[in-house]
Design a protein that fits this description.
Blueprint: E1 7-10, H1 17-28, E2 31-34, H2 35-43, H3 47-70, E3 76-79, H4 88-97, E4 99-104, H5 107-114, H6 128-146, E5 149-152, H7 158-177
Parallel strand pairs: 1-3, 1-4, 2-3, 4-5
Helix pairs in contact: 1-7, 2-3, 5-6
Length: 178
């Protein structure tokens, strides 16, 4: 079965959106894009620098413009930033312009993956575990609101996760055609 339309990956930072997205795009012979990397490439500065100079509000404004532009492309796999779902317009662009895949992970798994990560502005706090739980509490309902499918990450290999995503996408397409 041929999977049609754009595929948009949402979920918390550290859930594997970029890694799984790259492998998924390769398996489906599509272009892979990462909204955070696109912002960095087009501005010439890091996300951390944008947060430092413009604050979270400045970053979110840039992110919304980028997601609007990227979701207008065709036949892509797009990994979004963990907070992209905070903006109502982003949720609208994602849900109207493709299939949304929520890569979910527990707070404990996310903490294990990101305990030493210094590149994530929102985790530069005294208690990373508490911050991860707080972010997940706020964002999980938004991820679920727009998700066409949900896949748990972390308990299996990247390749098995990609295979599960493809299986769920094929199942979703069959249901849609019925």
């Amino acid at each position: 079965m041929v999977i049609t339309g754009n595929l948009f990956l949402v979920g918390p930072m550290g859930a594997g959106k970029s890694t799984i997205g790259r492998h998924l795009a390769k398996r489906l012979r599509r272009t892979f894009l990462d909204s955070d990397r696109e912002i960095e490439q087009r501005t010439g500065v890091s996300i951390s620098w944008i947060f430092e100079m413009e604050g979270e509000a400045g970053f979110r404004e840039r992110e919304q413009k980028m997601i609007e532009a990227l979701t207008e492309m065709d036949n892509i796999v797009l990994a979004t930033g963990g907070g992209a779902v905070l903006a109502e317009m982003n949720r609208q662009y994602l849900s109207e312009r493709g299939t949304v895949i929520y890569l979910a992970a527990s707070a404990e798994q996310l903490f294990r993956r990101m305990a030493r990560d210094k590149s994530r502005p929102l985790l530069q706090t005294g208690d990373k575990k508490k911050q991860i739980k707080s972010l997940l509490t706020k964002r999980d309902p938004l991820y679920r609101e727009i998700a066409d499918i949900v896949v748990l990450t972390g308990e299996q290999s990247v390749q098995r996760t990609v295979t599960e995503v493809i299986r769920k996408l094929e199942q979703k397409q069959k249901e849609t055609k019925l």
